[in-house]
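Section 5.1 Outputs to date
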Amino acid sequence: MKIIDIIGFLISKFVLDVLGASGAIWGSMEVIGLRTTENKFIWQIICIITGVLFFIRWSMMAKEKYNEFKLSTNSLEKKLNNIIEKNYDCAKKGV
């Protein structure tokens, strides 16, 4: 998996999961009629708390994806080093 793919994945997950969760609370409470001008501040706090919780969840997922990428990069690097060492050994032996 390329780094650009991971970045795109993380950005889209952030928008959908973090911002989407807060926006869903905000919008649905307005549609239902629970959010009014009198209690707007309370709903802002509730949406911020929701956003923070989903940001923590997203951060844990992002760290996991980064570790997967790092692991796959390390294994690719090891394979390339093995190929280079084999070619070097063959050239050294004159094969």
